[in-house]
Structures are given as structure tokens and as C-alpha cells.
Design goal:
By secondary structure, the chain is mainly alpha-helical. It has one domain. The chain is 72% helix and 0% strand. It contains 7 helices and no strands. The longest helix is centred in the last third of the chain and has 55 residues. Pfam families: MotA_ExbB. Its main location: membrane. Involved in the TonB-dependent energy-dependent transport of various receptor-bound substrates. Protects ExbD from proteolytic degradation and functionally stabilizes TonB. Keywords: Cell inner membrane, Cell membrane, Membrane, Protein transport, Transmembrane, Transmembrane helix, Transport.
């Protein structure tokens, strides 16, 4: 008897789930897959911008350590200090642009003050750096603002299809409305899952960009003061740590002399 029961249970077919994600998307057709593809592109683009901008910001903060430690300002001149900075860095760009502006001012024939010319050149250099850092953030803002509505479009289409099925069938049976309603709920959820990380990433990166802009503004002010004072004005920096003096080698022990009896 037990063997017959086990054989009958094993022979029963496992009921298939007809209301899963793929089934709902297949019922939605090309429109559902198109909306889903747009949301996937938005999500991938948002995470790509987040990772690349985070790497770029961390690099700028890391390069600022050499300036904060005083290694740059301990140089005898700005040109010598610029050589100590990493090539193609934002900080070296400010120094090189300031030195180029100082050299160009000597070639001018009008009465433009050096301070105004240098200040304008440094402001233009800061603006170019900040503009580069802000690249990609409008995409995050756009995704955060539009992704819920893209998902809502899929929701509206899914509900519309559910109503059509109810009208054709003449009854609101679960097998007629489960697929379209499931598709509608899935699109709503995906739209929110795409929008929320994009908004959080935008706000976080924007706050870090503001911190970098403050550091750039302070550094350019120090450079302007240093050039205007011909190298006399420098920020207070800590002295370089002195290297410990080498320990003297221990003196060789003298051999003991035997005492005569």
C-alpha cells in the first residue's frame, strides 16, 4: 500500500507557475519589454556614473593630501612645487594656469591689474574643474525624476490590458487579470528601484563636489596671495618630520689583559 502511494505521488506532475515575472512580461509583449529595457539602461547608466565619479572624487581628495601635508608649500617656488604634484591633477592645473596667467600679464600693454587678471584666470580654471566633476550628474537627476513615471507607464498599460481581458471574458477571473496586473506591479517596483538609487547617488556626489569646490577655492586663494607677495605669503604648514639620527655603532670590546701573579 505504501509503495503504491509513493508511486502515485511521484507520478503527479508539479503544477507550473503561470504568473511569474517572465510570464507577465511575455503577456505584456513588446511594449512591456521596451519599458523594461529603458529602465535597465537607466539603472546601468546610473551605477556607471556613480562608480566613475566616486573614483574621480577619491583621486582628487587623495591628491590634496600632498598639499595639506605641506610638501607643496615647502618648495622654494610655485614652479618647483608644481613639479611635485601629480600630472593632469586638478591641483596642478590651478598652479600651472596661475603661472601661465602671471607670464601672460607681463606681455600686456594695457593697464589691467595683475590681481584682476590672475583672479579671473584662477576662477576660470576652477570653473572648468567643477564642470568636469559635475559631468554625468544631470543624467542621475533625470533618472531619479523620470524613472518612476516610466514605470508608471508600464503600470497604466498593464491595468489597461487587465480591463480589456475582463471585458472580453465577461468576468474578472484571476486567470484573466493576474498577468496584466502582475506586469503593472512589476513595472511600478522596477521604476522605484531605478529612481531611488539615482537620487541618493546624485545627492551624495553633489555634496562631495561642493566640498571639492571649497578646497579648490581655498587653494586658488593661497596661490594668488603667494604670487602677489612674490612668494612671501604661504599657508602655515607643519615642518617636515626630521629623520632620526643614526645610532652610533657599539664600540668593540677590548680584550681583557691577564694579570701577572
Amino acid at each position: 500500500m505504501l509503495i503504491d502511494i509513493l508511486a502515485a505521488a511521484a507520478g503527479e506532475a508539479t503544477p507550473q507557475n503561470k504568473f511569474g515575472f517572465l510570464e507577465a512580461m511575455e503577456q505584456g509583449g513588446m511594449i512591456a519589454w521596451t519599458i523594461f529595457g529603458v529602465l535597465v539602461i537607466m539603472s546601468v547608466g546610473s551605477f556607471y556614473i556613480l562608480i566613475t565619479k566616486l573614483f574621480e572624487q577619491n583621486k582628487i581628495f587623495s591628491q590634496f593630501k600632498s598639499i595639506r601635508s605641506g610638501a607643496f608649500w615647502r618648495a622654494s617656488s610655485l614652479k618647483e612645487g608644481s613639479a611635485k604634484l601629480e600630472k593632469n591633477s586638478a591641483w596642478r592645473q590651478l598652479v600651472d594656469d596661475a603661472l601661465a596667467a602671471e607670464e601672460q600679464h607681463t606681455k600686456m600693454t594695457d593697464s589691467l591689474e595683475a590681481h584682476d587678471w590672475l583672479h579671473g584666470s584662477l576662477a576660470r580654471s576652477e570653473a572648468s574643474i567643477n564642470s568636469k566633476l559635475a559631468g554625468g550628474l544631470p543624467f542621475l537627476a533625470t533618472v531619479g525624476a523620470t524613472a518612476p513615471f516610466v514605470g508608471l507607464l508600464g503600470t497604466v498599460i498593464g491595468i489597461y490590458r487587465a480591463l480589456i481581458n475582463i471585458g472580453l471574458a465577461g468576468s474578472a477571473s484571476i486567470d484573466k487579470v493576474a498577468g496584466p496586473v502582475g506586469e503593472a506591479l512589476i513595472m511600478t517596483a522596477i521604476g522605484l528601484l531605478v529612481a531611488v538609487p539615482a537620487v541618493l547617488a546624485y545627492n551624495w556626489l553633489q555634496g562631495r563636489n561642493k566640498k571639492i569646490a571649497e578646497l579648490l577655492s581655498g587653494f586658488s586663494t593661497d596661490i594668488l596671495a603667494n604670487i602677489a607677495s612674490r612668494g612671501s605669503v604661504k599657508p602655515a604648514v607643519t615642518a617636515a618630520p626630521a629623520k632620526p639620527a643614526p645610532k652610533p655603532a657599539p664600540a668593540a670590546a677590548k680584550p681583557a689583559t691577564a694579570t701577572k701573579a
